[in-house]
Specification:
Length: 331
Amino acid sequence: MEIVNEYEGKVVLVTGGAGCIGTNLSRKLAELGAAKVVILDDLSSAYEWNIPRADNISFVHGSILDDEMLKRVFKEKPEYVFHLAAHFANQNSVDNPETDLMVNGMGILKVLEYAHLADVNRFVYSSSGCGVYGLDSQMPFEEPDISIRLHTPYQVTKLVGELYTNYFYNLYGLPIVNARFFNVFGPGEVPGRYRNVIPNFFYWALKGHALPITGDGTETRDWTYVDDILDGLLAMGQKEEAVGEAINLGSGEEHRVIDLAANVNALAGNEEGLNYIERRDWDVKHRLLSSIAKAKRLLGYEPQTGFEDGLKKVHAWFRENWENIDGCAEF
């Protein structure tokens, strides 16, 4: 998709900028000529070695719950805020529901308050398409069809985040956009206990372990390569038509978990195969598929990276960064 570059010479704040999406977004913004990209991240689920280095990228180690840190980053006068910081993962939220509520609820409220006071040009919030749609939503998931019959605290607090952004838009006119991500994957995501299946599969495959399949493997997900997510986010920061809207960012395609596992094992040269284990109690969605019609209409969004090509790029990143990855992965 064509991106009109309005970021050149601007200051951009990326909360959670040390994660997979944040590092790639920060690098892209720096390449687009942003005057300064300010990353705020507490490194609770990310690592400093993974943060891109550039003269116009500034990293601040701190929490979105810390007012002193928020004052520090907003003193830079950001014109755009991409709020990616989150207490991540469904199982993590089940294990730690109070922390999930603090970070994903109080955290976004605090960042929104500072963004409102700073009169930012755009506030883009990373919601979850995998979270706000439920078993009572029809597939492919369309933006109006959200659910309140949710199964994890993470799903609840991601929806809470959208309610808060909508509140600031409705009452104060803060120009917000809610980006509903679907199963994002790509270089930059370190594997671990609460991480996504793709980095974990690559880690285990490269270690020569059988890949664990929860369920029977016919479950599907709408895996979306990070570069396509970046295209959508950058457009959300610029397109006036996006203001006040919730917009799915997915691939618009389904892929089975068992096929993902076969691809990863083949790329890694792993002959240990699969290990079928019991499905987690909260894992009730056997299929996930986004409708990206709204993103195409409002943003000109058009995914460019195929699933298998994306997996090859992740495999290459693992090979290039294996020493750091192996030293940091926690299960």
